[in-house]
Amino acid sequence: MSYDICISRQRRNWTPEEKVAVVLEIIREESILAEISRKYEIAQPVLSRWKAEFFENMATLFDKKGESVFRVYDVSEPGP
Predict the structure, then answer these.
(1) What is the pLDDT of residue 33?
(2) pLDDT tens digits, residue range 35-45?
(3) What b/e sequence results for 45-75 when a residue is b if at least 16 CB atoms lie within 10 Å of its CB, and e otherwise?
């Protein structure tokens, strides 16, 4: 009698710092996305989503209220 052993892979939780490090590696373009995906064992769509979220949220770094700069200032008006 043979038994099939099913090994389930646990979902990893990446810290924000780890995600930033991976995204910066993508942005630097030192390796292609497929290589980075293999290196960290993260699916390419996940890496693409992290990169998109990074760019969507990076303006909040410079806003002391925690709101996006693009929401605070009307694009048609001169900046502060």
Answers:
(1) 96
(2) 999 999 999 99
(3) eebeebbeebeeeeeeeeeeeeeeeeeeeee
Which token pair is 13? 């939780």
The single residue listed with the structure tokens 């929401």 is: 71
Beta strands in 1-80 (DSSP E): none
- Separation between Cα atoms, residue 56 and residue 23, nearest integer Å: 13
Say how far apart CA 63 and CA 55 lie, in whole Å. Answer: 15
Cβ-count burial of 22 within 10 angstroms (0-12 exposed, 13-18 middle, 19+ buried)? buried
